[in-house]
Amino acid sequence: MKKRVLSGIRATGRLHLGNYLGAVKGMLELQSRDDLHTLYMVADLHALTTPYNKDELKTKTREVVLDYLAIGLDPEKSIIFIQSQVPEHTELFYLFSTVVSLARMQHLPTYKDKIKQYPNASTVALLNYPVLMASDILIYNASLVPVGIDQEPHLEVAREIARKMNDAYGTNFPQPLRFATSGEYIPSLAGEGKMSKSIEGSYINLTDDLKTIQKRLAGAPTDSGKGETVPTTGGVANLLKFVELFEGKDRYKQYALSYMHEGIRYGDLKKELADAIYKELKPIQEIRAELEHKTTYVDEVIKNGAEKARKIASETVKEVKEKMGLCKIK
Ligand code: AQP
């Protein structure tokens, strides 16, 4: 049997370069491998773990499906589905929660960060996020997970749950590993932390036009443009990282040399970088604009995806329930 791959993105807004380079590029790469069976979801249940607007959730969920398709995820090769349309995820999540300690969840760095960001929204759902994520992955027995490096602590939880379930109940869950891309950590444009949908000034969206990209880059902090060593953290380091990602290593090296000699003119660097980013995003935006009119096609993709995913997921849940000693329906 082919190895399975699972990944997902929360339905919390437009995808940004971090989601694209850290997750979706890896999803694309794995989709083209013959030895793998890829499943990609829109994580709408995970979107409920931080404050959200219920009137916008459906639109945001569909936006991610459109982004997936525009970037090149192909329903002929991958199962593309919406998490809440496969209710088995939440059923397995509950079964998994019986082998996870409260303390383990409370000490996760991602949980601590989120309650700092949303002090009035420290819910049980947020605490349980990694357990649901383990269920998302293990329900398909997925062994490869293309996600950014920020998700590594959650993958460790998934591996622990797999081991505990296998030891306690004789299941045969794999130890899922992260599939890393060269963009596994995309920094914030603001100079500190990671690029994030919910941090204004930190991101460039995949749907941004050239003017918007230029405007967003204009806000990125810089320095005098000159120094003895090239900065490795902060605004300038982040800008140079984007140069490397979108214009290549050679261009990065040229700028690094300029920094230590004649100096960098950030106006020129930002203009050139905006062009390079837009060049990569323009074809995606063109396909996305076409997809916005193909309502029936997108509906079909979503419906078929849920059906295919449920077939696999229900088998796993049935097996786990039996192994955990729950009564079978006669
Ligand atoms: N800055 C990043 N660099 C590399 N990868 C990133 N990812 C997110 N930010 C970066 C990866 O994108 C995938 C989906 O992330 P998500 O939307 O499910 O959740 P998130 O990590 O919480 O993303 P955001 O943008 O930070 O959303 P908000 O602001 O809503 O919390 C994951 O694979 C993640 O690693």
Summary, kept brief:
This protein is an alpha/beta fold and 330 residues long.
Give your account of this protein's structure:
- The chain is built from 13 helices and 5 strands.
- It has helices at residues 17-31, 44-47, 54-71, 88-97, 102-106, 109-117, 124-138, 152-169, 210-218, 235-247, 249-260, 266-291, 295-323; strands spanning 3-10, 36-43, 78-82, 142-146, 177-179.
- The model has no long low-confidence stretch (mean pLDDT 95).
- The chain has 330 residues and is of the alpha/beta class.
- A 5-stranded parallel β-sheet has the order 3-2-1-4-5.
- The chain has 2 domains: 3-185 and 295-323, HUPs (Rossmann fold); 210-290, Orthogonal Bundle (Tyrosyl-Transfer RNA Synthetase).
- The chain binds adenosine-5'-tetraphosphate.
